Amino acid sequence: MLRWLGITLVVLLGLQMAVLLSAADWADGVFKQLLIERLVSQAPMGFIGLLLMLLGSRLDHPEKARPPIRWLVCVISALLAVVMIVVIPVSISGNQNLSGETDQTLEQQRGQLDMARQQSANPENVKMLGNQLSQAGQLPADASDEDKIQAAQTFIDKQLEQMQQQIQQGERQRNLAVNQRRYGGTLSAVILAIAFVLLALAAVI
Question: Are 163 and 15 contacting, i.e. CB atoms less than 8 angstroms apart?
Fold first, then answer.
């Protein structure tokens, strides 16, 4: 029973990977990242399946040193261990590329924020904006120049605050994504590679 449960889990892993590989585009960095994430997230299911196969074999055939199913577990485990080892540098490279793109976007947003601050520091720009707000009907018709300048400054401060919040939100999302890829992808692949190596050894010892 344990063997069949294990075989079912291994087959399910193979089907999951086959579906993704059927639409493979190795030139696309997004596809590579998706493949790594799917592989790392589904590999524990395969590990449990192989472990059940090994335990079932030992329970059903305790007198045999190395029945065929143990060699099968060894081969599949070794293959998955190699795949995980290959995944590690690809994952690191993908993380660096995605982080670089995100950092570039954030840097552009910071540049826009600095430019907006410089423009808001110019009294002429503030006065012009106040007149535009008055013409747009956002101020009373009898608003004084001081009222216009104050309204324009309030509007500018609100815009600058929103831009700053967008940058901070982008930084939080960047840090969360980096940590997710680092610990949920690269580090998990390392741990899974070690686990599959140990399982392959346990199958033939």
Answer: no
